[in-house]
Structure formats: structure tokens, C-alpha cells
């Protein structure tokens, strides 16, 4: 909190204080930190010179207009700086200058005094007014020289000096019926200023006892907001005269400067002297009232006395605290460190004492706390980590409670939004997925759709998918599959061949658009489903296309004799590779049969001696849909000398690399069928 003072008569542009020096900041940083002035009142009296870093007077100040008769006059300002957000309070005392001369309510005062008045009789005079304060206010009074009258100055309870003319020598109306005097009011300024009033005193006969107020100065304590019509006090005035000379009438005594301030709030019964309230009283508007009452009898000439009553109000807790949000930083990043300033909050209560002592509260479960900056000003700061994914914002209710009895409270709620930070990587619904696709599917066929989610928002949650090349296949995986980067759907790039590749591992990466970007991966196992796209291949007997295999058998071979065996393989798998053997139908009945599963050709019935050779067409068919087949033509010739068994008649040549491969294929085929 900074404190400056400035005399009230300075011209606009006068330098009040060096803000940059007193705040401990460099002048060149003031503009960048957006230093600005916030006045707590409705008028603007000051301005900030950012180039020089000083507080300047924006308009000429009039202390009397700003603070009236208050003993102190201070203007309260607030300085707000950003980056980081800071609030500084500035208090400027306006110093009084002796720019007003004392002035009497009336330029001429006419008084009356009976000639029988005893020495020591006092004639109260109107108090002069001087808007200045302190030493510049009224210091003393002076009365022009007189043989009969002198000046007496009394001090009222509030420190106001009250002049009275005191009779020092008995009067003789027949000699001097009228006395002309000059009353001068002097202030304590330098140079001294003064004001005068002419006092004319008429000397009258008769009524020689004035009304007397007992006590002449009194004080009453009264609670604010008492009902209208409440009795404040009843004046105790006595007059020793009798008849009309002792009959007293009461009236308020006012001055020109404040002609009706207390008369609007209090009523006076002219006959009984009772003073009552006639309007609500507010301690916050004024804590005390000075009431002057004139008690005047009905004698001739009339005599009067003066009563002074001070009414002091007792404050009650009738004002609720007021919460002022000076500045709110919303949104705030979710990675803000504990202690980050969220808002600057001011609080005030128009009551006084304990009724005006205010404390602020917020809910304990919130990750925020209140830190007192200085009197009646608080900072709302973070007290723990924030997580937008758990809470995207907070409704913060600030509650202000005073210390009065009964307590009064006010609350204000504002919404604080939490800004997202890319602190969460995308997450697949499953790190491993399985997909199936038929071989020979057209390029562009949809295989599988991966799905990932990101609890962040905005660009931090915008996901893109891509396929990683892990080098597990001989050919880059991207030559087989592609992925839609927006929705994660995997498509084929070319037709797949089950006989070449039965399964693929497709690593998929998902990446968000945050900065820095975060990512995660998943693996999709794509299994290629077999299709019946390979016909059976007859590996034995191996004959050129369009030729026939010739096999000789004994002419007297009996039924069951093994003629030969057809061996075939199918590159497909499963049902598509299950093979069956059968003879194609012919016009004549053949004495041979083929075993459906083994492919063995045996003699079905005894051969006749004169029987010629037989032509058999053996068809090998798989179990696929649609079924594929292959056939071989076998010519069987009965011979007398052919007595060897089939095992010897195979007449296989010596082992060669081709036969070795053929045997390997046969073994693989049989093993595959057995496994299925």
C-alpha cells in the first residue's frame, strides 16, 4: 500500500508520487504489464504517466467539496498490473490550504438586552463558518472596543468555538439606547484570513430574566434506525419571570451553511421542548448530530436562552458486506502451479466496529484458497493440482460474513473454466484385435476398424491413425493395407493370397494433434481365410497333359488285386483340400474300382483271358465350394508275363531332386490334412 499527500490547490499535471520507484519496478515495464488506475470512487482525479512512471494530478482538488468537515481527507485508488496479476492500494491525503475566509451567517446581527441586565449577562452570537480544517479553521474572535461589552469564547463539545457578548458594565438606555459593535472571526492560516459581522445591540426595559437551559450542553445516545417519532430528549428550561415573561417557546437555531440538515431528521415541540425523530437515522450517513435550540420567552422585550444537544448514534449491524470482484483470470490452465492467482477480491462493510469486520470463506473441497493481500483485499489462488478431465470448471461461491450480532452475510458466485492441456495420450479400446478376410478380396475391401479415445478436448483430442511398418513381413505392410487416418478403418491395398500369407500383424498408431503430440499403438492380427482357388494336382502318375499312363497287370489277376494308386495334393486347406477319387462313367462296365479316399485302383472282378486293355479316367475332386477337380487317363493292359505286384511295378526311377520334392509335398499335404 502506497501513501502520498498533495495540497488541494495544485494544478492538473502536478506530480503526486513516483510509482515505478515505490513499486520497485522498471519504468519501461509498466506499459507491458498494462498498469492501470482504478478509482474506488465515482470521480477520476488522478492519472498515470506510463512513460515517466509517476502519478499525476488530473484535476484541481477541492478538499472542502471532497470531504466536507471531516478532519482527514483521503482518496483511495487501486493500481492493477498484469503478468503477473497484482493489485496495489494507493492512499492520497488531500492537505488543506487556507483558501477560505471565515464567514458569518448574517452580515448584521441585531441583539436586544434589557437595561436591568446584570453585569455578566451573556448574549450568544452566531458562529462563523470556515470550510477549511485544522489550523486553517477559525482560531479566535475579536470584538471592537466597548465600555459596556466584552467578548467571551466558549468551546463546544465538538471543538467549535462559540462567541458570546458579555455585559461588563450596567446599561442606561436613556444615555445610550443602541450600541454598534464589530465582531471579527480570525482563522489560524498563514496568512491569516478574517470575516466580520456588524452587531447592533438595542437596550430594552422590563423582562430581565432569560430562559436558562439546564444543562446548557447535553449529550444523548440513540440507536440508528429507531422508529420515527421516538423521543430523543425533553429540554429542561426555566425562566424566573412570571406570566408571559416566563412562558417559553422553543425553536431550532440554524445557520446558513446547514440550514436544514438536522431539521429534516428531528422535530421540536415549540411548547413542551420535546425533541423527536421524524425520519430514519443512519449511522453510516452521519454518526452524530449537533442540535442548537433557542428558548425564547414572551416578555417584552423577549429574552432567550440557548440549549446545545449532541445526538450520538449507536451503530447496529444493518448493512450486509459487499463483495467486489476486481479481476478474474478465466480460463486457467489445468497445469497451473499451486499459488497461481485466479482472482482479486475486495470486500467492504459500511458498518463500523465489529459490525464492519468481514471475513471471506469458500468451500473447503475446492482446490483453491483465499490469501489476504491487505486490509479488505484478498487473492484467490490455487491450492492444489487441477485436472480438466475430472472437472472442466468450478462454480466458486465466495461468502462474506461480518462479526456483528446477528451476523450478516453476502455471497457471490462466479464460474472458472479450466483450459485443457495435452496431458493424456490416446487410448485404444484394446491393444490387440483380430480380423478375418477372405483371400482374393478386391483391393479396397474393409478389413477392420480400430477405435481410440482421448479424454482431452479440442485439438488435443483430434486423433489421426496410421500404420507402422514393423519389418515383420518381407514386403512392407503398407503394400498390403492402408488405414483411413480419420476413422481408423483398415482397407486392403491388393488381393491377398492365403497360400502365400496366412496371417498379418498390422501395427496401428494413433496420434493426437496436441503440442507436443502424444500417441499409442495397437496390433491388429489379420487372418486370411482360405478360398477354394486351387484345383487338385495329381503328382502320381505324372504324365504330360493329353497323354495316358499305361499300366500292365497279370492276365489272371483276381479281384482285389492292387493295380496302381493315384496320388494328388491340393494347395488349399481345410475342406478345400479334402480329396476324393472316382472313375468317370463309361459306356462299358469296367472290371476295376477306385478307393474313394486312398485313390487305390483294384481289380473288381476276374478278368477274361481274351480281354483287351481297358481305358480308365480317374477324376480327383476337392471338397470346396464350388468343387474343383483334375483327371488322369490310365490304360490297363492284361499280360501273361506280368506277375509282379504293384509295389514292384511302380518302376520308379532312381531318386532325383524332383522325386524328393514330390515326396515332401505329399508329406506336407498329409500332415496338413491330419492337423485339420
From TrEMBL:
GO terms for molecular function: calcium ion binding. InterPro entries: Cadherin-like_dom, Cadherin-like_sf, Cadherin_CS, Cadherin_N, Protocadherin/Cadherin-CA. It is a single-pass type I membrane protein. It comes from the Eukaryota. It holds the Pfam family Cadherin. It is found in: Cell membrane. The keyword Hydrolase does not apply. Gene3D superfamilies: Cadherins. SMART domains: CA. Keywords: Calcium, Cell adhesion, Cell membrane, Glycoprotein, Membrane, Repeat, Signal, Transmembrane, Transmembrane helix. Its main location: membrane. Residues 5-104, 105-213, 214-323, 324-428, 429-538, 545-655 form the Cadherin domain. This is Protocadherin gamma-C3. The lineage of its organism: Eukaryota, Metazoa, Chordata, Craniata, Vertebrata.
